[in-house]
Amino acid sequence: MTITIQVDIMIRSDKVTEFLDIMDDDKKTALQTKCISSFDIIRDDNEPNKFILLQTVTSKTDLLQHMKQSHYRWKEFMKTGAVLAYKHTYL
Prior knowledge:
Elements: E1 3-11, H1 16-33, E2 36-43, E3 50-57, H2 60-68, H3 74-78, E4 83-90
């Protein structure tokens, strides 16, 4: 069963560049692990510090494996206070 994860995120304006660097690296590494079959980073044109991440996994096992990988760094980024709002949805 394919699972799509949608993450709606609002980043502090002064941390957007750092966030994008982390997400770019995480995307590349996630796609190499084969746990994630697609990973899109969408930036809101009207609110440049608002993003949507869309990730597709083929199974819950793959999702759990992905979340254990060292590339899953954005949780550490969240601890810095740079994330103003966050919502995780499984579709």
